[in-house]
Write a structure and sequence with these properties.
This protein is an all-alpha fold. Helices cover 77% and strands 0% of the residues.
Length: 154
């Protein structure tokens, strides 16, 4: 991840994009690194949110391209289990996209929302709001507390 920080804002965008796909690493590390290096908080917030949101939408689209038969064939998941999972997802619907920011499970939510063909517009809007809130918290904490915040999380 350090090499992404060397690319500054472009690295932040690419890193947060990749972190929202099935590549597991922390995009918080990237935004905090940029802020500590003197990055503009508003620009960092916008780029991190945009990258992470577009990465989440990519995961949604990958799920959308998935087929039930593939999961049955390659992963041994039965149609019955997929239908049970779909009922759980249908219970909350596109609101699950708010949680796409969460480490590990967020990526699965994004893929699942696409796989089960939930409304793209609603999912993308809720996903954007959730990811903006995530990075907004980090930026606000850094702006409000500066070095004390860095000391707290180190």
């Amino acid at each position: 991840m350090e090499f992404l920080q060397e690319f500054g804002y472009i690295g932040l965008f690419i890193g947060t994009f990749l972190a929202a796909t099935v590549i597991p690493f922390s995009s918080e590390f990237l935004i905090i690194g940029i802020l500590v290096a003197g990055g503009n908080p508003l620009l960092s917030f916008i780029l991190a949110t945009a990258g992470n949101w577009l990465g989440g939408l990519t995961s949604y689209c990958l799920g959308y391209l998935g087929k039930w038969e593939w999961l049955e064939k390659w992963f041994g998941v039965t149609r019955q289990n997929l239908e049970k999972q779909k009922r759980r997802i249908d219970k909350y619907g596109a609101l699950l996209a708010f949680l796409s920011w969460a480490p590990f499970i967020g990526d699965l939510f994004a893929v699942g929302l696409g796989f089960y063909r939930l409304d793209f517009i609603k999912c993308s809007l809720y996903m954007l709001i959730g990811k903006a809130m995530r990075f907004g918290v980090w930026v606000i904490l850094y702006v409000a507390y500066g070095q004390r915040f860095i000391d707290m999380i180190s």
